């Protein structure tokens, strides 16, 4: 096997060392190297959004991001959002609205929504759709997801 | 939770949250790609570059020497077993011949997925190319190359009439169509084509297999039925079913694509050869190229009515591209023909179809399975007749619709029918003016769909502390069947929902379940759950009668899981009863029920049915859908401004989950109606990626999709419930096509209704 | 196995490219990593421009022109207040690329270097009369946008050269905008139209996207149209000139015929959108 590269990542608030192929994508590193499994490989082409993670708070595609570029940046996956009260509110509304069906898109969808509420605390429905349109869902028809984000925003910013 | 918590009240009819919601919003749900086993290898597939070629030999030398490679499987390793739901025509992996571009021809197990994929590229396969069949018409041509030389020898589970490249044919007939046209004042006739649609479940297909010291295989996979996985793997690899245990992790949705096999047989063959666990996860491109897709249909349809709009006769002929293997295709065609009359009283009907093998990926079941294709033709013709006789779309449908007690085409009885109420709510809601003042471009369609089909079962166990374990073998594909079945179980036992644990399907321990498909789990498995839970209640009553020393007739089941004497305050908890059963008398309490849907489809006294693949089909759900569309005058692109979707589901066990089915079905149907299309460049799929094959995004969907749950209880259904999974998708193509016709004046006969087609219709360049 | 190198300066990047002729420069990765994932890139080296100072962001030059660093993300371009008037077309195009998440990753330099004929920047930059700056072993050179695309996915960017910046003329007060027809939100264009009014409000600059290997512009036809914007016949003649230059293909987004039909329709549509601005002027 070819020589691996060693990277130090700041993942979910902790410095984490990982050895991977030098050109490994962040998705490969998270899933195969670190066992961080909430980002999903839905297309590996940056279209579906199931691998969405936050880098310095901004949602990006883990499948299109080279691990080598991630050193020195703050990486967040759903595994690192447990103590985030905004995410907890989003999660609760996703459950209550019926925005969770098969769940494969859910982490990516929620991380995009988390960034949206950081930028725009009370988004209109159109703004929600625009911000989340890069996260595909094949089950819900989207309506209940938009409901969940809007309801969470309303609760967080009355 | 506290075992002493008071019963929260009835759960049936309540929009309770799905039991798997929390793990999913926290990113903790485990799908097939998330499973790991000690010593596990990763598998990858080499796909055929040819649509039809004889395999002359393999050179595996370079691939076997590649870094990390442990085992390689080809057609030489899998024996001559063949699998298939209706016609057993498919090997585990290409053997002797390749039949479509993308067909797995070899598979490698290596230490990493990257190594396995790299080694696949080093495999050399020598082919002798054969002429290919790329359309059903070509397949029926006299000089067509024959794709399945041994078709006559294949095992078939119905009278398929297979010959040459004809995989199956079906013909249904009632009344006398040929003489009925003379009674018609108005006749419409047309040819329609529908496209191949990809399922695009967000999770690509995958499997993980391992073999124990005795050679017994454990197999996890993305599936809609652990039992169909077991049957397919065992048939294709020649294993006794007792030698294979099939399990499921969480499934990232299935719309028919995960019902029959994908790579499970190959994964098992690799694990057996490597004697190590092997995981295989398809890339999105492979998932497009080698799993399955919705059939392209050619439909010819003719409908006749009297001057007052009363329907008299319909004839429908369909020609289906089967792809390389039969898979669920005979069922799809047979069902499409059964549905071809729509939910109407039409005394004279004939429907016939041919299913033809081609050198394309297998087409198979996809939400609606054949119903949307014929509905696209049928609901447009209903509108056209209404226009000719001067009825509005609602009046036309009310005049002709089937009623409770009527008989469906060829024989099934309709016991419950809420279609009239569906039409009422849609008409009332859609009669409101648009906020922007523009007249509506309104289109209407109605649909019916079955739920029923085949075998199912449930085992309900009372645990020592009086809580409940429910085991059905039904895979929850995200739609919420674990939750709905738990609600039915909790309701029957009068226990809180959180005291019912739902077991994950396991062919070692679960009762048989044909699968999570055809809108059947709530209705069919729900019946078994209710009966099994009732058996548990009966046994608990027996115990209570002995414990309280009174006749059973004096006892009552009380909320919270207690049994007491009528009129007395004292009672026994399930914990007390179950403790006695476990340790003192009678034995642990288990209730079990199995059933198979057994109402015949065909009544030979009223109709002819030749080659009917589903002799016992199901009960009927109904829907009406209205849409108001905008057509962009520049591009011809259609968007839905507002939609109304009403469905009679008998009883909504969980109204929230029914609503999401209607929303999700609508959007998947909208993709099918407007943009989704698998395109072939010769024999090769031209758009096997999400870059090139587009599904609707959040921005392509209207906010104003109104759903209406109509409840006309089905006497045989659990608490009156019947299926809800497909009824919200079926009518979309019809409603949209009718709305586009109103908006543009042009009738469309080809799906999808792309901007290009609609613009051509508007400019007179032909639709 | 592919190595990823992180030069700190452009000169280092150019030197690395010279050392590894088969290496590929990589910007945001939105396209190149997707190609790598599909097994379509087997370079021994990827040379990341990520850590090179001065490649990010939009700055106003002393003469009023705007310089867009190659590594400027679509999201920054889409939100830039510097892109006004005649340059609004670039901002609008940036905001229509894919979706918000991809706009956080992709860069103008990466997109232009990839030269996908259906991508959004090329027509917008053609309409804006952008100039591309390359740096290679022979030094720096500038190429006008209309000389950039030479054939399908073939450009003036030579092996060993790096696209460093896109320079836009000083914004004029006149209006501009961008429209595309796409199958769904975020898809590549089936056909697109970038349009700007000239400073005097009497003429147009128009570039059509996704209807040939590169953006389609016709300066002669623009000159002929000057002063006749309200003459439907003249506009139709102008559109016909662009149709004549188009060389579209049939693909999964639409047929060549459809694309040709869309060109005049898009021009009429976008002109009507700019019309209120014209009237006000």
Automatic annotation (TrEMBL), chain A:
GO MF annotations, alphabetized: 2 iron, 2 sulfur cluster binding; metal ion binding; oxidoreductase activity
Keywords: 2Fe-2S, Iron, Iron-sulfur, Metal-binding, Oxidoreductase
InterPro entries named among the record's database cross-references: 2Fe-2S-bd, 2Fe-2S-bd_dom_sf, 2Fe-2S_ferredoxin-like_sf, 2Fe-2S_ferredoxin-type, 2Fe2S_fd_BS, Beta-grasp_dom_sf, Diverse_Oxidoreductases
Keyword Iron-sulfur among record annotations: yes
Origin superkingdom: Bacteria
Residue ranges constituting the 2Fe-2S ferredoxin-type domain according to the UniProt record: 5-81
PANTHER family according to UniProt: OXIDOREDUCTASE WITH IRON-SULFUR SUBUNIT, XANTHINE DEHYDROGENASE IRON-SULFUR-BINDING SUBUNIT XDHC-RELATED
Protein name in the entry: Carbon-monoxide dehydrogenase small subunit
Lineage of the species this protein comes from: Bacteria, Pseudomonadati, Pseudomonadota, Alphaproteobacteria, Rhodobacterales
From TrEMBL, chain B:
Pfam families per record: Ald_Xan_dh_C (PF01315), MoCoBD_1 (PF02738), MoCoBD_2 (PF20256)
Domain of life: Bacteria
Family matches, as InterPro entries: Ald_Oxase/Xan_DH_a/b, Ald_Oxase/Xan_DH_a/b_sf, Ald_Oxase/xanthine_DH-like, AldOxase/xan_DH_MoCoBD1, AldOxase/xan_DH_MoCoBD2, AldOxase/xan_DH_Mopterin-bd_sf
GO molecular function annotations of the record: iron ion binding; oxidoreductase activity
Chain ranges of the Aldehyde oxidase/xanthine dehydrogenase a/b hammerhead domain: 26-131
Protein name: CO or xanthine dehydrogenase, Mo-binding subunit
UniProt organism field: Gemmobacter megaterium
From TrEMBL, chain C:
InterPro entries hit by this protein: CO_DH_flav_C, CO_DH_flav_C_dom_sf, Diverse_Substr_Oxidored, FAD-bd_PCMH, FAD-bd_PCMH-like_sf, FAD-bd_PCMH_sub1, FAD-bd_PCMH_sub2, Mopterin_DH_FAD-bd
Matching Gene3D superfamilies: 3.30.465.10, CO dehydrogenase flavoprotein, C-terminal domain, Uridine Diphospho-n-acetylenolpyruvylglucosamine Reductase, domain 2
GO molecular function: FAD binding; oxidoreductase activity
SMART domains per the UniProt record, alphabetical: CO_deh_flav_C (SM01092)
Alphabetized Pfam families for the sequence: CO_deh_flav_C, FAD_binding_5
Domain FAD-binding PCMH-type: 1-173
This protein's UniProt keywords: FAD, Flavoprotein, Oxidoreductase
SUPFAM superfamilies: CO dehydrogenase flavoprotein C-terminal domain-like, FAD-binding/transporter-associated domain-like
PANTHER family: XANTHINE DEHYDROGENASE SUBUNIT C-RELATED (PTHR42659)
Record's protein name: Carbon monoxide dehydrogenase, medium subunit
